[in-house]
Amino acid sequence: MNHQIIKRYLKLGIFALFMGNLFWTGTSTILADDLTVNDRPSLKILKKQALATKAAAKKRAEEAALATNMVSEVTVEYTSNTYPAGQCTWGAKEMAPWVGNYWGNAGDWTTSAASLGYEVGTIPKVGAITVWTDENGGYGHVAYVTDVATDGQIQVTESNYNGSYYPSNIRGFFDPTKTSEGKVSYIYPPAGV
Fold it and tell me: Of 36, 135, 138, 153, which residue is the least packed, with the fewest Cβ within 10 Å?
């Protein structure tokens, strides 16, 4: 072999050895006790577990809602909205088609709904109808609950409030017990809504 070729191979070998040391500067001894089995679940298994957890949580929430009377166990007949357009009753029926027609003025809704088997109460819940009963004999007011904060404040979609005749969120978060509309109660939606 030629002296030039040997020199070249020697340089390449030293360079390779040098580069190898840059990337790997230690030695490794693997003992049988150090070995672990990869027990990470696959993405498919993780998705399946997430769906099962979500279904279980939904079932627990439904059971809790039934236990606290926040779901109505009634058969609903979905009908077109016969309330006068632009009124609060019309807006509530537009947002919650499970609401019956002919429940009367807004202030009468809690009594009408309860007589038909709907659950009513004083705890706000998303999807419920808020009913303000005017204790001075007025018409009352109704709205559809869209959000409930941990402090009890709610957001609603309502009609015939502050000049809005189309279902709108005008107030943002507010305390429903501190309004001039009257005493507040809720009509809870049917199961599965």
Answer: 36
The span from the CA of 80 to the CA of 82, in Å, is 6
Q: Which DSSP symbol is given to 106?
A: G
Please tell me the pTM assigned to this model: 0.64
Partner residues linked to 72 by β-bridges: 190
Q: Minimal CA–CA distance to 125: which of 145, 106, 141?
A: 145
DSSP conformation letters of 168-187: B--S-SB-GGGSSS-EEEEE
Q: What is the pLDDT of residues 176-189, one digit of tens each?
A: 999 888 899 999 99
| Strands laid side by side in the 183-187 sheet | 120-121, 183-187, 129-133, 141-148, 154-157
DSSP string, 93-145: HHH-TTSPS---SGGGHHHHHHHTT--EESS--TTPEEEEE-TTS---EEEEE
Q: How confident is the model at residue 33 (pLDDT cuts 50, 70, 90)?
A: low
Q: Which domains are present in the chain?
A: 44-193 (3.90.1720.10)
The sign of the CA dihedral 56, 59, 63, 64 is positive
Q: How crowded is residue 180: how many other Cβ atoms within 10 Å of its Cβ? A: 7
CA 3 to chain centroid: 79
CA–CA gap between residue 176 and residue 159 (Å, rounded):
16
